Amino acid sequence: MAKILFPQSTSPGVDSQEGGGRLVNAYSEPLGQGAGNAFVIRRAPGLRTFAGSGESGCRGMTVVDPYLFVAYSNKLVRFDSTGVGATVGTLNGDDWVCFARNNKTPTPDRVVVTEDAVYTFTETAIAELVDGDLPQPNSVCFIDGFFFFTIADGRCFASGINDVTVNGNDYIRAEAKPDGLLRGIAFDRELYLCGPSNIEVWANTGNATGFPFSRTTVIWRGLAGRKAIAGFEDGFAAALLWVSDDNGVHQLAGYGTQKVSPPELDRLIEATTNKDLLEASVYVVGGHPCWRITGPGFTWVYDLSTKTWHERKSYLTSSWRIGANSVQAFGKWLTGDRLSGSVLEITESTYREVGEPLIWEAESYAMGDFPARFRVPRAEFNFVRGTGIANGEDPIERQPQVAISWTDDGGDNYTTPLLRELGAQQIQKYPVAINGCGVTNTIGRRWRLTVADPVYVGLLGGDMGVMR
């Protein structure tokens, strides 16, 4: 028998013949000593509805205890911990928004920057902030008592401490390069002013007059699009990552960067002409801090605990349905939904996506010995068996199955899938195997395993018989 090898990190290749295996809605997790395999390939977290809204076009969200605030097309809505929503007021526009709040007591100031205005809001009302000293910003963040508003022309304005008013003289200009500013981020007690070709880092030096921070250093990697950065969110302490001006995903390392994206992802990003369509967010599920990037027709997720990538695709689409940013609220990781106005929870406790199938898929390495050809009389796959749910939906939960297919032409054509049972609850005696698997081509044999049934999935590897 020859080992059938599956990847720990997705690697589809530019052409399928180059691919090093693929993980779609599936991720790898290392196992301890004595386990049957070095790692297991599990189903990625599912999605369930936390709250419906009746609105459309989620533009962003934030948490100001005890509420979650969500911006929709022309509206701001608040939700409590049970998912009950109420309209706060009109929020003109339908483009992405940026939220921030300060430490003012007993009631903090809350601001939101839209494409054409700045608003302040409470739990029950919203009003445009009219300040002649503040040009139209493209983002806002908060740190050490100050709101910081970034302007496209490269300026950054600071508010008064725990106030929303701005003095027209309390600004700096990011001048490391004349490239303007896309976004301001508060991370690790410093202010990151992100331009297209560099990021300036500013620290609180307690300046008595004018701008309260001073520049510390410059990171010579810019931000590709204003939504393509995440990792600064409350509850996510793993790292700051962003899509940079070289079309790669970079992780902050000290005041330098470490590129973490593979060439396949870089090419997808490069092909995205409008970088403002790139969207990043984070979440933590099952001890895995994850950073995701979505662009036209793709979603990839980087697992910072394993330093591996996997792909996400929602049912009948080419990318993951989550949209806007994500937040930790009410003990959950919540996000928007591109296909509805709902607020969704990212969770391992469901094997579906808002009631639709969450299709787990793993493709193996190409198994062969170029230019030799082999006959394959039998193949077995080491799944965690007996994962059916006795009181579940029949048959997809009670008698779950895996679809097995293979290709001998590098992935251009796969055989008609053969269905094999994963086992009813605690029924583990039947192997997941197929016989009479044909003859390989000189390109080698690649296997594809697919599970649509909503049960736990754990793949520990496989073996195939090989005869010359």
Polypeptide structure, described:
This protein folds into three domains: 2-44 and 360-464, Galactose-binding domain-like (Jelly Rolls), CATH 2.60.120; 45-55 and 237-357, no CATH class; 97-226, YVTN repeat-like/Quinoprotein amine dehydrogenase (Methylamine Dehydrogenase, Chain H, 7 Propeller), CATH 2.130.10. It contains one helix and 41 strands. Strands 1, 3, 4, 36, 39 and 41 form a six-stranded antiparallel sheet that branches. It is elongated, with a radius of gyration of 25 Å.
What are its keywords?
Jelly Rolls, 3 domains, six-stranded antiparallel β-sheet, Methylamine Dehydrogenase, Chain H, 468 residues, mainly beta
Topology readout:
Blueprint (H helix, E strand, L loop, with lengths): L1 E3 L17 E3 L1 E5 L8 E5 L2 E6 L8 E5 L2 E6 L2 E5 L5 E5 L8 E4 L8 E4 L4 E4 L4 E3 L10 E5 L2 E5 L4 E5 L6 E8 L9 E5 L2 E5 L4 E6 L8 E7 L9 E2 L10 E3 L5 E5 L2 E4 L3 H8 L8 E7 L2 E8 L2 E6 L4 E4 L10 E8 L2 E6 L5 E5 L4 E2 L2 E2 L2 E4 L14 E6 L17 E7 L10 E4 L10 E4 L10 E6 L6 E7 L4
Antiparallel strand pairs: 1-41, 2-35, 3-4, 4-41, 5-32, 6-7, 7-8, 8-9, 10-11, 11-12, 12-13, 14-15, 15-16, 16-17, 18-19, 19-20, 20-21, 22-23, 23-24, 24-25, 26-27, 27-28, 28-29, 30-31, 31-32, 33-34, 35-40, 36-39, 36-41, 37-38, 37-40
